[in-house]
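Risk register update: the risk of archive-format incompatibility is retired. Evidence:
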Amino acid sequence: MDLVPALVAGIGLPALATLIGLVVRSRDGRLRAGSRTPGASGEAEALGLAPDVLGTDATLVQFSTAYCSRCPGTARALGDLADAHDADVRHVEIDLTDDAALADRFDVRQTPTVLVLDAAGRIAGRIAGVPRTGELRTLIDDLSRRNRVPQRA
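Archived output:
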C-alpha cells in the first residue's frame, strides 16, 4: 500500500469523523427560536393539551419514547424548573413510542425534544436533545416578563 493513501485513511478519515461529531454535539440541546406569529392557532390544541394543563407563562412539552435513556433525567430537570415557577410554568411529557404521526407533525427526529409554548400555546422555542438549562431559563424569563403587567407601588 502506498504511504499517502494509508495516511489519508488512517489519519484523515478519523479526524473528519471527529470534526463532524463535535459539530453535531455542539448543536445538541441548543434552543432554537420558534415561529410565533400573531393570530396563529396554538400548537397546544394540536398536541391534545387542554387549556387547564398549560402554564400561565410557559409550558414545557417534552417528547419522549420508552427507549430514550436521556428522557428520565430531562423530565426531572424540566419538572424541577416548572415547580420553581409554580403554575406559571408547567411541564408535560408526551410519549411518542407508538405515535409516529405526532412525531412527524412536530418534526421530532430525536428524543428528548422539548417545545416551549407561550401563554397562548404557540411555539416560542424548540430544543432537540437534552436542554441547556441556562438558555431555557432565559426564554422562560422573557416569556414571564412579556405576560406580566408591572405593578405600581
